[in-house]
Amino acid sequence: AEAAAANQRAETAETKRREGEEQLETLQKQLDTYQSGQKESQKNANIWQLKCHDLQQQVEDLQKQLSAARLQNPTVAPTPDVVREAKLEARKILSDAKLYAESAEKELKQQADTQKSRMAENARGIAAGVMLVRDRLARVDQRLNAATLDLDGLTQAIYQALDDTEAELKELGTEMRDFAQGTPEWNVPEPNPLQSQPAPAKSAAPQFRVKATAQPVRAHRNAQPPAPKPASRRLRNTRRPVSQLLQDEIDKIDDQTSKA
Fold first, then answer.
1. Contact in structure between 130 and 24 (CB atoms under 8 Å)
2. Is the separation of the CB atoms in 224 and 184 below 8 Å?
3. Which of 113, 153, 168, 185 has most Cβ atoms within 10 angstroms of its Cβ?
4. Helices 80-181 and 215-223 sit at what angle, rounded to 10 degrees?
5. Do 17 and 140 touch, CB atoms closer than 8 A?
6. Minimal CA–CA distance to 63: which of 102, 94, 100?
7. Coil, strand or helix: which one is 84?
8. According to the UniProt record, where is the region Disordered (predicted)?
9. Domains of the chain and CATH, by start
10. Would you state the torsion angle of the CA atoms of residues 31, 34, 40, 41, taken in this order, to the nearest 10 degrees?
11. Mean pLDDT of successive 10-residue segments in the chain (260 residues)?
């Protein structure tokens, strides 16, 4: 149960770590998107600057053409109407260029301000996300360390239990050997064919024999004094039937009668 709980905590920590990595990847993608937008805005700003430069170049070309025309015809003075029209045309071109440049500058400034605010907001969001991911990763590391410690403790407990079991088994084996060595076989006297005993008693006698397989048991068994078989025989011989005793007495009387 402890191992299953530790594995579950480790899996939960691993899942949270993966979620943190996914959030970090999402924030990185958003940052890449904002950077792409900034590059696009910078590109548009460069295009506006090139257009302004082209307008300024056109104005300069017109001024150069006017100066060249004056140099080519110094004797012929331009009429006031032509000069007035040229000035009006140049003023119109310059006014359009100025309006165009002001509009471009204003738009660029707005885009820059918007981009800055977005970048600042995104930077704050990214920083907060990074801090959150770091916090979660730290918690995941702590949980992984705790799960590792739990697994180590459980492993040590299992090893200790195995060692205790092995010691108990060894102790049990020693007790079994001691029990085998200290339990001799029972010496059961052989049955006398002259003595009438029931048949089930002969088959039931071996059930009480305890055989030891160790060598010292046999030596201990041999050291036991054997059963007094002759005494048993004498006991059986003295216990003669009454009819036989009476016949002996009759024989004695007959002997005494014959001698007399």
1. yes
2. yes
3. 185
4. 20
5. yes
6. 94
7. helix
8. 1-40, 181-260
9. 2-158 (1.10.287)
10. -130
11. 76 82 84 81 79 78 78 61 73 75 80 82 79 83 84 85 84 70 50 49 43 40 46 45 63 66
